[in-house]
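Need a sequence for this fold. Nothing fancy.
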């Protein structure tokens, strides 16, 4: 009989690993980041090995069942790639590039499983060195006779933005037991590691990135003095309550850019501690039949939790106003620099990304430390 896995304990342990990794990323502790990624990968490996053992003991390889377990039908190129890795005994012996379809599906999973990343504008910029963006509002066209002289010119200022990409590394320890499972299971293992590790690093960069060797976060002042490549943190606006008048004037009104655009939906990113300790009670109401409805807001807003958001702070803006450029070498290389796991070589997969808010008015940082849930 297959050994039962205590899901609750496993989830708690993985949450602890993720929190430690998040702290290491925030403090720029390279050794801590490497160790955190390795521990994250080890946890995923343990779970995948347990799932494989259960599936094999049940002799259940039905396509529908496997899809529910998180497997996708891998392509011929992917199968060839994984078989070469297995034959070589690891990624170090494989000379093939990881198929682009693997990274594409990782990003599909990221957007499906991580609310913040599902809202952000991701663009594949592999091979592109610049992109064009608008740096002011579009002027209105002039109505007049078709044969009349053109009396107004549409003047839309554009600016070129560099897509210089910064390296994001994930550490992937691979045990022989994992290689022995075959291409389908190895694919699941690789995609989960890439997805979880990159999700954490990307969320941290999107929210609080300094701009030095990494994307510029929502909380950074694009107009402030840049010191040694680091953008300053924006001043926080104190938000005392979630009353309609307060949210209308302090949150929605500034985002209209003096009435030049309609704000139809805003993203509000908070730390889980703030969400459950303050915001949940403020946005949950009781219906006439006695049931509870949560997430009720007087403005069109989506509240997203992220461990990368500092406690007591809330980032607010329109999600499409954050641009993230993503590229990849699609190559997994090995490193003997880190030796956290005995008898296992640590492999490094490199993803390249850069991002920034559209402009300095795109996102507002609020101080929500004084928010208090309603007294019941």
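Here you go.
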């Amino acid at each position: 009989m297959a050994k039962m896995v205590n899901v609750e304990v496993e989830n708690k342990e993985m949450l602890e690993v993720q929190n430690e990794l998040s702290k290491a990323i925030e403090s720029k502790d390279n050794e801590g980041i490497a160790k955190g990624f390795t521990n994250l990968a080890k946890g995923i490996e343990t779970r995948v090995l347990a799932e494989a053992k259960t599936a094999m003991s049940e002799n259940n390889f039905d396509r529908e069942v496997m899809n529910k377990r998180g497997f996708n039908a891998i392509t011929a190129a992917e199968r060839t790639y994984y078989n070469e890795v297995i034959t070589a005994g690891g990624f170090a012996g494989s000379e093939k590039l990881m198929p682009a379809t693997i990274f594409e599906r990782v990003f599909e999973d990221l957007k499906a499983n991580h609310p913040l990343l599902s809202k952000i504008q991701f663009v594949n910029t592999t091979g592109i060195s610049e992109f064009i963006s608008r740096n002011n509002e579009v002027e209105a066209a002039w109505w007049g006779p078709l044969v009349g002289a053109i009396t107004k010119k549409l003047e839309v200022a554009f600016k070129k933005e560099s897509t210089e990409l910064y390296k994001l590394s994930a550490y992937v320890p691979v045990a022989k037991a994992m290689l022995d499972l075959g291409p389908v299971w190895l694919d699941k293992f690789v995609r989960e590691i890439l997805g979880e590790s990159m999700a954490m690093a990307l969320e941290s960069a999107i929210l609080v990135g300094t701009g030095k060797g990494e994307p510029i976060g929502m909380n950074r002042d694009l107009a402030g003095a840049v010191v040694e490549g680091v953008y300053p943190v924006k001043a926080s606006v104190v938000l005392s309550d979630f009353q309609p008048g307060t949210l209308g004037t302090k949150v929605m009104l500034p985002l209209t850019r003096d009435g030049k655009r309609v704000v139809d939906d805003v993203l509000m990113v908070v730390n889980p501690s703030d969400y459950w300790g303050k915001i949940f009670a403020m946005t949950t109401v009781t219906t006439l039949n006695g049931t509870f409805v949560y997430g009720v807001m007087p403005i069109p807003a989506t509240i997203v939790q992220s461990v990368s958001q500092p406690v007591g702070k809330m980032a607010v803006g329109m999600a499409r106003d954050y641009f993230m450029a993503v590229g990849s070498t699609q190559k997994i290389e090995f490193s003997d620099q880190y030796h956290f796991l005995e008898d296992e070589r640590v492999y490094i997969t490199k993803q390249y990304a850069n991002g920034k808010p559209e402009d300095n008015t795109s996102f507002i940082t609020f101080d929500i430390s004084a928010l208090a849930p309603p007294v019941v």
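For context: The two ends are 50 Å apart (CA to CA).
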